[in-house]
Structure formats: C-alpha cells, structure tokens
Amino acid sequence: MGTPVWTAAALVVLLALGAVLLIALRGRAESRREVARAHAETAELRSRLEALSRQLEATSSELVETREAYVITDAGTERPGTDVPDQVVLSATLGEPLVKAVAFGHGLRRALSPESRNRIWFEMRREVRAARKRRRRATKAFVHEARAAERAEQQPDAA
To answer: Which terminal residue of the chain, N or C, has fewer Cβ atoms less than 10 Å from its own Cβ?
Structure first.
C-alpha cells in the first residue's frame, strides 16, 4: 500500500469529490423544484387570465347591448340604467398611460442596452477622429497659404 500521506491525500480528494457531487445533486433538485413552481404559477396565471377574459367579454357584450344613441342635446339630462362599469372607466383612464409608460420603458431599456451604447460610442469616436482630421487639413491649408503669401511678399517684383 502507499504511504500515509498519499492515502490521506486520496481520502481528501474522494471526500471533496463526494461533496461536489452532493452539492450538484442538491442544486439539480432545487432547480427542478423551481421549475415545477414556475409551471404551477404559470398555470394559475393562465387560468386567471382566461377568467378575466371571459368576464371582459361578458361586460363588453353587455355594453354593446345596452348602448343607446346619444344626442348632443341629451348631454344634461339623466338617463336611468346607463351606468358605465368601473372596469371600463379604469381601463380607459389607466390603460393608455400604462401602455405609454411600458412603451417608454422598453425604449429606454433598449436605448441603454450594451449594444446600443457600444454603437453610439463607436460612432462618436469615429466622428471625433473625422473632425480631428478635418481640423488638421484646415490647419495645414492655412499654414500653406500663409507661407505662400509670405514668399510672395518677400520676392522682389520682376517688373
């Protein structure tokens, strides 16, 4: 057999492998429980959505059936039985601003994404380099013209 040091080292390695295996198995079991929980929650949300959809369809069909033609001259008179359900009022008052807020959030999230920031950074760097090149060319042209003007002044007139 091997020396006690090698035996102890082998035992430590086996224990470490066992611990890693145990942790991996526990992690898998936890993942499975989380997936099952997510599926159950999704099924519950789906059933709630279907119930709300049925309720909305019933409410909207009632509104269509009870809708009466209004004339501008009837604006000040009260009509019995023409109450608007709370859900319709809530949907009208909160629905559009909520959609706008969600759309704004989506656009903001997209604008601040790493890909977008990288693209903007790249374009800015390219534009800065192009502007620098334009300034250098303009400076060189100015210096060239200034030197040409100096030479023209210094040369004696050939006339």
So the answer is: C
- Give the lowest-confidence range in 19-28, 32-41, 65-74, 132-141: 65-74
**Rg (Cα) of the chain, in Å, rounded?**
39
Q: How many CB atoms lie within 10 A of CB 111?
A: 10
CA distances to 14, 100, 132 from 1, rounded to whole Å, are 17, 76, 76
Q: pTM of the prediction?
A: 0.32
Cα 29 to chain centroid, rounded: 32
